[in-house]
Design a protein that fits this description.
Structural class: alpha+beta
Number of strands: 17
Number of helices: 5
Strand content: 35-45%
Order of helices and strands: HEEEEEEHHHEEEEEEEEEHEE
Distance between the termini: 44 Å
Helix content: 10-25%
Shape: flat
Largest sheet: 12 strands, mixed
Length: 326
């Protein structure tokens, strides 16, 4: 390969990497406003390969409602007006709404922080599952002289146990939240991550939503009720919503904790992690003490060469804090 070819190949590779990074960094939703006139019973908006948005509720005859709704977008592509596929009333597209200006204040160092682990699901075996399995086993033994009947009982019992276990798993799959900050900075970033489904933080363009894989189709549902939050789903994907939060510049100094009560804290200094126990509000950071290591997903990918404090929020099993000290 000639030197010119190598230069061109390197340039093309760099462009591909930059384009991929920009596409992956973009939010997967945009916000549009629609007017719906009754009588109406729901609205489905089709954004093509990006996904759909379903607005659920009813409007009586003569009623008119304006709704600001999140619309799925394709990675790296501008939002396109969605196609109305289901509507019983008159629908009018009023235009796109600009993202909250505060999103631009998020430091790039915070945007680069590792996303919350969305696979922290605890698998619990409910007593009802064990009872069903025990009953199916006893019935199978009682019907051992009739293989077909025993097989039928086993299949039914397994199906019921699977349904009960799946329902328990769905309930025990909480979203994981991480509040990220840089000591001395007034803007922090909160990230909420979950697998397959995520309750979004607002009905306004005040947050960003990313998915892994990046191009997976999104299904967003929200009711007419303005107090209810939207819900995004994507099969076999991780969803992460991020948004800025203002905090005092001294929110988490070594001398005093003005952020939130932490029931377990770890500190990295000179490359070594130490446990520090609880950190109450208004108190200084405690000295090193015996304790477990921090969760691996919480510290993977953090910047090197700086001191780091991570902790778990008191009373919130799936809520954490990370702060770096430049």
């Amino acid at each position: 390969m000639s030197s010119l070819s190598r230069v061109l190949f390197a340039a093309l590779t760099a462009l591909i990497v930059v384009a991929s990074a920009r596409a992956s960094a973009q939010s997967r939703i945009a916000f549009a406003e629609f007017e719906l006139q009754g009588p109406a019973a729901g609205l489905v908006l089709d954004a093509g390969l990006a996904g759909t948005t379903r607005l659920e509720g009813t409007l009586s005859a003569g009623e008119t409602g304006r709704f600001l709704v999140p619309i799925p977008t394709s990675p790296g592509a501008p939002p396109l007006e969605p196609r109305v596929t289901t509507a019983t009333g008159a629908v009018r597209f009023l235009g796109w709404r600009e993202p909250d200006a505060r999103l631009a204040t998020l430091p790039s160092a915070l945007r680069a922080r590792p996303a919350p682990a969305a696979s922290s699901t605890r698998v619990r075996v409910r007593p009802s599952v064990l009872l069903v399995l025990a009953a199916a086993g006893i019935a199978g033994l009682w019907l051992r002289r009739s293989p077909r009947a025993a097989l039928a009982v086993g299949i039914v019992g397994t199906a019921i146990a699977f349904a009960l276990a799946r329902a328990s798993l769905d309930r025990d799959a909480p979203a994981v939240e991480v509040l990220d900050g840089i000591a001395g900075s007034p803007t922090w970033q909160r990230a909420r991550g979950a697998r397959d489904a995520l309750v979004l933080p607002a009905r306004t363009p005040s947050f960003e939503l990313r998915t892994e894989p990046n191009g997976v189709a999104l299904a967003i549902t929200l009711p007419f009720d303005p107090a209810a939050l939207p819900r995004a789903t994507a099969t076999r994907a991780r969803l992460v919503a991020t948004w800025p939060e203002p905090w005092p510049e001294d929110a988490l100094e070594r001398g005093a904790n003005h952020l939130v009560v932490l029931d377990e804290v770890w500190v990295r200094e000179e490359g070594n992690w130490t446990a520090r126990g609880p950190w109450p509000l208004g108190a200084p950071l405690g000295p090193p003490r015996p304790g477990s290591d921090p969760p691996g997903w919480l510290i993977d990918g953090l910047p090197q060469g700086v001191a780091v404090v991570v902790g778990r929020v008191a009373g919130e099993e799936w809520s954490f804090v990370r702060c770096t000290y430049p």
